[in-house]
Amino acid sequence: MITLPEIGEVIVVEGQSDRQQVLKAVRADVLVTGGSRIRKEVYARLQRVAKARGIIILTDPDFAGGQIRRQLTDRFPEALHAYIPREQATSEGDVGVENTRPELIASALLHVRKPGSDRLPARFSWDDMTACGLAGAPGAATRREQLGAALGIGYGNAKAFLNRLNALNVTREEWEAAIAKLEVGPS
Fold it and tell me: Do the domain assignments include residue 115?
């Protein structure tokens, strides 16, 4: 019998199919937002569990999932974040947590990121992005996608990716180790 990892925080996902797939991966309580139009009752429930146990936001790696993540982060800045790379969450053109293999969901939930303080100086700059071929270079999007997967912070356009690097407390050591493993070199 396989023992699933246990997660103490409440995991927040978009839909019931996502919830079912998460429960195949870990033992946890899972709360469903019901999409981007989050009802007052759901926010009230989230407020209670965020104070009592903490929450982990796990949304689909697509535009709508990004919007929901931002909405939740605005209301719950202390929430933890788990990211699944887009290619691991895609099946027949459909992108979502529900398409992700349980072991990949478990890995994402065991490698959550906590947002940093706004008062901390930024560790990474635009110069870092361009020097590593992550912005303004051929293949930059692919490199950001690979680096985001390696760091567990997900994909974003160049500006969003830079903001995420700093907001989610990625260290220089993590950055350098992940950059060294990138499959596509800068042009």
Answer: no
